[in-house]
Amino acid sequence: MRDVFTLASALALYLLVCCVPSAAAKAPSVSLHVSPYARPGGDGSPARPFTTISQALEHLRQIRGGASMPSAAEIVLAGGEYSVTATIEIGQQDSFLTIRPARGQTAC
């Protein structure tokens, strides 16, 4: 019985420390938007999103100057189906990046 309590306590502590967002977590300093239905030539804004995730990632890398920055960034995917025709490589220079669907939407 004691082993079960110890394991449960350790698991609870792990979840609290590792999985609960920190109060110090910052909002993204850069938000780039992507939509599979966007027109070519977008700038990544909500009104003129990029058409591909790769375009958004390349733009973010240009903003960052090719170096990893400690500021958070996000790529927000509008709802819809995304056709990925090439491997999207995410490396060290892409640290502090979140790729997520827009609120209330499903991107696949």
Task: Describe this structure as you would to a colleague.
- Helices cover 28% and strands 14% of the residues.
- With 108 residues, it is α/β, with parallel strands linked by helices.
- It has one domain (25-101).
- It has a three-stranded parallel beta sheet, covered by helices on one side.
- The termini are far apart.
Quick structural gist:
The protein is an alpha/beta fold and 108 residues long.
The counted number of beta strands is: 3
| End-to-end C-alpha gap | 45 Å
Return Rg in Å: 18 Å
Quickly count the domains.
1
Low-confidence stretches: 1-24
Task: Tell the overall outline.
Answer: globular
The main β sheet shows up as: 3 strands, parallel
Could you estimate the helical fraction of the residues in percent? 25-40%
Residue-averaged pLDDT: 78
Give the strand order of the largest sheet, numbering strands 1, 2, ... along the chain.
Answer: 1-2-3
Provide the descriptors you would attach to this structure in a database record.
alpha/beta; 108 residues
Topology:
Blueprint lengths: L1 H18 L10 E5 L18 H12 L8 E5 L19 E5 L7
Parallel strand pairs: 1-2, 2-3
